[in-house]
Amino acid sequence: MQETTDIINITKSWIEKIVIGLNFCPFAAQPFKSNSIHYEVVVESNLNTVLGEFSKVCTQLNDDESIETSLIILPEHFDDFEQYLDLVDLCEQLLIMEDLNGVFQVASFHPQYLFAGSEESDPSNYTNRSPYPMIHILREDSLTTAIDKHIDVDSIPENNIINARNLGLAYFKSSGFFKS
Questions:
Q1: Residue 119 burial by CB count (10 A; 0-12/13-18/19+): exposed, middle or buried?
Q2: What is the pairing mode between strands 104-109 and 134-139?
Q3: pLDDT at position 129 over 90
Q4: Which of 113, 116, 120, 152 has minimal CB crowding within 10 Å?
């Protein structure tokens, strides 16, 4: 088991070099530079424990305006992408049950991320691949503000696909962030 600080440092490096460095998310630089991202490493495999942590992190995010966004990092479990997607679905259901739908939004990152209809070897999958399974909790109002300020938000996914494919599979595999 890796140390929590190592897991967070690897995650921060991935955000800096891949997410921000390749401009996959034009909204990530501000909270990263201002140190307003909360990182929660959860090593438990019990689904109820992970959902409890998700709820706790949502409460913390709701109570602390200095935290812009949170990443729940799951380094030891949820390697199976389908099982992970079930977890993401449960987190989204939990937002509804806790009356936080419209307050927060869930984004997903996983080492085996595979967009529907894409091939495993398609480099575009790396726009949502991460060193560990992660659940990203975003503030909806912050996201709306960022989107409103962006010139052409609709072009982001297509530009990411083009960028990732131009870089190619070898680029991502050699980055050190992704298991082969």
A1: exposed
A2: antiparallel
A3: yes
A4: 116
Do 137 and 104 touch, CB atoms closer than 8 A?
A: yes
On the 0-12 / 13-18 / 19+ scale of CB atoms within 10 A, 102 is: exposed
DSSP-derived letter for residue 127 is: G
**H or E stretch covering 160:** helix 156-167
Residue given tokens 């305006």 in the structure block? 65
CB 110 within 8 A of CB 134: yes
Q: Are 125 and 160 in contact (CB under 8 A)?
A: no
Q: Which amino acid is at 35?
A: N
Examine the pLDDT at 78 and tell me if it is beyond 80.
yes
Rg (C-alpha) for the chain, rounded Å, is 16
Return the residue matching tokens 């200095």: 66
Task: Please give the pLDDT value at position 1.
Answer: 67
pLDDT at 93: 97
Q: Quick one: pLDDT at residue 45? A: 73
Triad 40, 20, 136: Cα angle to 5°: 30
Structure tokens at 57: 């992190």
